[in-house]
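Worked example

This section walks through a single chain of length 239. The input is the sequence exactly as stored; nothing has been trimmed or padded.
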Amino acid sequence: MASNSEFFKRAVFVFAGRDRLVPIYRVQTDEKKIAISFDAAWGSDKTPKLLEILRKYNVKTTFFLVKMWMDKYPDMTKLIAKEGHEIGNHSATHPRMGSISKQRIIEEIRSTHEKIKELTGQECKVFRPPFGDYSNTLIETAKELGYYVIQWDVDSLDWKDLSASAIYSRVIKQVKPGSIVLFHNNGKNTPEAVELILEELKKRGYKIVPVSELLLKGDYYVDRNTGEMRKKQTEPLTE
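Given that input, the structure is written out below as tokens.
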């Protein structure tokens, strides 16, 4: 028989699991539709080539930008938006958002929101926490500010300087309808890999859209086990 302390630990674990909020990692859909995203916090050398490739394939994506990056590269920020890409909020100073106060979260998101609007005119509504680090406080606060918190279900690992073929293999093996793919704007081999991936995805009949276009409209919930955004037709069963 379990001791009182063991029972208490189990009860706390179950309670925490039921109350745990999760970001959106992917979206439930029957369409062959995915979102491609790029995080930008450091460097900009590869970005013009990326934009050229995206233009070649007539693909619109989401660039999650950090405010300090936009401060350093305002013209590049404007160019990304001018090319028709969605600008996402990636914080102001790139902190671990899961361990900071609510007031600091508000400051990080709001100051970046204002910078995006100043440079591009876009009213941003998608937020990606640096390092993928989040908490219930972050998700609740972002929602209060009109934001969806976005993660990814396909990680290219391009920041590790993998070869273009290795990045291609990782992404193509994992991608499926509703996926959100993560790249970085300044990965060493990212442009070459992205071109290979776009070529293959187009052959397979995939439509590639910005993150906000992939998201479901109306009532939804996020599955706690998979991070999948699903239509809320009835209340989901809790375990």
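What to look for: The longest strand covers residues 33-40.
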